[in-house]
Amino acid sequence: MAKKTQQTTWAGALMQALTGRAAGGHDRIAKKPISERLGWLAKRHRGNEEKAAAAAGVTKRTLRSWLTGKSKPSAKSMEKLAKAERETMTKFVPAKDRAEMDASTKKVGTRSRDTRVSGGAYLSGTVRISNDERDRTIQFGRHLPSNFMKEVRDAFVEGGQKAAIEKMEEGLANHYFHTSDFEILSVEELSFGGINDPLGDIGDADGRYVSDTESLKPGDILED
Predict the structure, then answer these.
(1) For residues 13 and 3, is the Cβ–Cβ distance under 8 A?
(2) Of 56, 70, 108, 111, which has the maximum CB count within 10 A?
(3) Is residue 216 part of a domain?
(4) Per residue in 180-189, pLDDT tens?
(5) Number of domains in the chain
(6) Residue 180: which domain range?
(7) What angle do CA 4, 6, 7 make, to 5 degrees?
(8) Residue at 166 is within a domain
(9) What is the pLDDT of residues 97-156, one digit of tens each?
(10) Do 107 and 190 sit in the same domain of this protein?
(11) Which pLDDT score, from 0 to 100, does residue 132 have?
C-alpha cells in the first residue's frame, strides 16, 4: 500500500493514508449544519438510519428528532457524532489496506539493519533534523512498535487530525529520531507495507538476533 504524492504536506500525506481524503476533511464536515452531517453519516451507512444512529451512539428516534429539528444534540452527543464521522472516514480506506498499514510497523531493534529484514512503513521527503534540512528516505516501520499505525488511527478517531499527527510524531521522536527536534517539511511518498522478518520472534529483548548455538543468561548483554 503506497500513497504517492507530489510535494504534499506531512498532514496531507498522513490524512490521505488514514482516511483516503485530503487534510482537514473532518473539519469541513463539522462546519456543515447538523442535518447535513447526519445525512452524510446515514449516506455512508447506505441510507440505514438505524446503523447511522448506532454509530453516533443514539437511538434511531433521537436521530430522526435531530434531522427534523425537533431537538438538538447536546455537547456530549456532538462529540460522539464527531467521533462517528471520523471513524467512518477511516473506512474509506479498504480493509485490506488498513490491515497492511497495521502490519507495517514492528520494532526489530538492531536487526532493522539486517538485509534479511525488509519492507515496513517508510517516508520520502524533505526532513529537518536539528539544523540539518535535506531530502531523506526514512524507513521508520522497523523501529515503531507493532500495530502503532492502528494507535495513530485510533488517535484520529478520538481527537481528530491534530491528535493523529501528534501521536505519529511522538512515535517517530521516541523510536526513530530519538529527538523531538525534527520537522517533516514535505512528503513525496508515504508507503505502508508489511514487514518481512524471516527471523520472526527469534531474538533477544532488544530485537537482536540470537543464534541457535548462542546461550544467553539473565543479565548478559549482546554487543551490536
Answers:
(1) yes
(2) 56
(3) no
(4) 999 999 999 9
(5) 2
(6) 99-196
(7) 115
(8) yes
(9) 999 999 999 988 665 666 667 789 999 999 999 999 999 999 999 999 999 999 999 999
(10) yes
(11) 96
Comparing CA positions, the residue from 119, 104, 112, 108 lying closest to residue 204 is 108
Residue 220 DSSP SS3: coil
Considering the domain architecture, whether residues 50 and 110 belong to the same structural domain is answered as no
How far apart are the C-alpha atoms of 126 and 166, rounded to whole Å? 19
Q: Which three cell numbers stand for residue 202?
A: 527469534
Are residues 39 and 78 both part of a single domain? yes
pTM over 0.85? The answer is: no
Is 108 in the same domain as 34?
no
- Phi first, then psi, for residue 28 (nearest 5°) are -70, -35
Distances (CA, A) of 150 to 56, 61, 103, 117, 153: 21, 33, 9, 22, 5
CA distance 110 to 117: 10
Long-range contacts made by residues 27-34, C-beta under 8 angstroms, separation at least 24? 27/160, 27/161, 29/85, 30/82, 30/85, 34/66, 34/72, 34/73
Assess whether 110 and 80 both reside in one domain: no
Q: Are residues 103 and 192 in the same domain?
A: yes
Please say whether the beta carbons of 84 and 49 come within 8 A: no
**Contact (Cβ atoms closer than 8 angstroms) between residue 77 and residue 165:** no
Bridge partners of 186?
126
